[in-house]
Give the backbone structure.
Amino acid sequence: MTEARPKPLIGGLLGLLLGALGMALMWILGVLAPDRLPLFTFLAVGTALGLALTTQRMNAARGRTLTVVVLASIMGGVALTGIPEMVRGGSLSEGCVLEATSSLEPEARTVPSTTIIDPFDVSTTDWVAWQGSLAGAASEVQVDASVLVGGIAIPVDTATLPASEDPMAWSGTLDVASVLDAISDDITLTGTFHVQAEFRSEGLLCEGDGYVRVVAPGAFDGLLLAVLWSLFALVAVALLVVALVVRRSFAAVDSQARTTPYDVGHEASLGTGSSAQEPQAVEDDRARRAAERERAAATQESPTRPEGRTSSKSADARDSSRSRSATGGGDRATTADSSAGADAPAAAEQAHDEPVAAEPEQVEPDNLEPGNLEPDNLETDAGEENSAAASALPEDDQPRPDEDPDHPRGGSI
């Protein structure tokens, strides 16, 4: 029997990969930084999309579907916790100042002025001129830089700023290409980054975070973008193939359900999960139902009557036969009385020797077939009884054809 084959776990996993690759493309292309809100939103939506495509009917695999739904819901809840981070934008500790310029940002911009939608733009070969100050005098400053991915800080670089003429202010230039090469020698990273930094010096601490975008030359330029686009297409095709297989399995089950006899049962025609009946059980069910229908038909064709009750028509026929026999006996008695006294002993002897007509056999309840209760059959039985009674009379007392049966010979009125 054909069964539907939903794939909620495989669909959820493929959807999760699709969402992660989609977020990576948005990141490398410089559209969005991988903060908690966009990252976990892509993951939750991708998981839900994969589940929907590879399940199609949520009640077909409730346990596995519920598991994937719970995971997608958790990721959606984590995404909501990133709303304040995204709305706030860049930040810097009070009393600290940091601003920079680049070839793409000729006007100086401060860290708090950057947002995920409007970051500080640089090119892959740019030089960034920066300057800043702390809340107090310091001879040397330790800098720790990190990149935030999903709210988690990933350390990138550590540097030391030597003392300057002004113990409260520092300035310098930064080569973007050298920084990118320090992160990866083979792949040139581009995209929007949420950068976090700490400045520490002799009891002074300055913390801040802002958004920097390294502009990509093109949507398909570079090895990293080519790999990401290829993986995204591959996962998307795999997800569509699984969805098509699941869809065909449901179509086969629906087609079988439309051609399955009604007595097999809805669950057997559905054929999904543990609700599908075994073929032998279906055959046994069909045989049982056929036997019940045969017994019901036999009961309707051979109805029974309560014992001790006979047909009213048969009773009327027996009463009519008895009355006719009584009438014949009365006529014979009248004829004997009108005869001569010498013939009285002979008449008495003749009456004594006259055979008594046998009563018709009582019809038993089991013999009460519908054909035996027809009026034609009853009249035939009554006629046979009258003929038997008439044949029992002496030859002289037999009625002649030209005589009136009600006035026999020698009788008195």
